[in-house]
Amino acid sequence: DAGVIQSPRHEVTEMGQEVTLRCKPISGHNSLFWYRQTMMRGLELLIYFNNNVPIDDSGMPEDRFSAKMPNASFSTLKIQPSEPRDSAVYFCASSYRGRNYGYTFGSGTRLTVV
Amino acid sequence: KNEVEQSPQNLTAQEGEFITINCSYSVGISALHWLQQHPGGGIVSLFMLSSGKKKHGRLIATINIQEKHSSLHITASHPRDSAVYICAVTSSNYKLTFGKGTLLTVNP
């Protein structure tokens, strides 16, 4: 397995533009997580899916952020409109709920909003 | 107060030294994780444990459930061990809560 695959690795966009981050979890994993990492706040959970259903989106900062998981092999995190304070590294991770499996993280997307 | 507290925040060691990073948590957990992140890099899971001790190469992780405390030890440290080490706990809903991380620098 190639692991959790995120794209793009780097994204630079202008304030106000729409940004879409993508994640392909490990095949067979049924839980998917989006995390954001900043210097000030460290790692924060944004949203958590189980079996493609959003279970906990309490970490989503505001309505500008939305996430979808249309099937077990793909998820997107969208920011519209983007703002400079959204600049961060966004990580996707997957796991298998129901067994004591660890988490596998993607390489992250470094987002810069100018 | 954070649910997961790590200490120290920063740690500098000389190559070959024995290193300990501590983690305390205040919530009920199903598992505790130690993660490693190199500067500008991704996050790698080192250990997941719910009791006792685990060892992988020069790394050892222990957990005391009663005291809600875990330690990560590195024996014979090497400059390539320089990274941020993050403690995280999993609650019953399987989401991770992270500590702030410990920045380890091992000098040659």
Give a quick summary of the entry.
Chain A is an all-beta fold and 114 residues long.
Description:
The complex is a heterodimer of chains A (114) and B (108). In chain A, the strands form two sheets. In chain A, strands 2, 4, 5, 6, 9, 10 and 11 form a seven-stranded mixed sheet that branches. Helix content of chain A is 0%, strand content 54%. The model of chain A has no long low-confidence stretch (mean pLDDT 92). Chain A has no helices and eleven strands. Chain A is an all-beta fold. The model of chain B has no long low-confidence stretch (mean pLDDT 92). Chain B has no helices and eleven strands. Helices cover 0% and strands 59% of the residues of chain B. By secondary structure, chain B is an all-beta fold. In chain B, the strands form two sheets. In chain B, strands 2, 4, 5, 9, 10 and 11 form a six-stranded mixed sheet that branches. At the A-B interface, β4, β5, β9 and β10 of A face β4, β5 and β10 of B.
The pair of chains with the biggest contact is: A-B, 24 and 22 residues
The oligomeric state of the chains shown is heterodimer
Taking the sheet with the most strands of chain B, its summary is: 6 strands, mixed
Shape of chain B: globular
Average pLDDT over all residues of chain A: 92
Distance from N terminus to C terminus of chain B (CA atoms, Å) equals 36 Å
DSSP helix count of chain A? 0
- Unreliable stretches of chain B (pLDDT < 50, length at least 5) are none
- Rg of chain A to the nearest angstrom? 13 Å
| Rg from Cα of chain B | 13 Å
Quote the average pLDDT of chain B: 92
The topology string of helices and strands of chain A comes to EEEEEEEEEEE
Structural class of chain B: mainly beta
Number of strands of chain B: 11
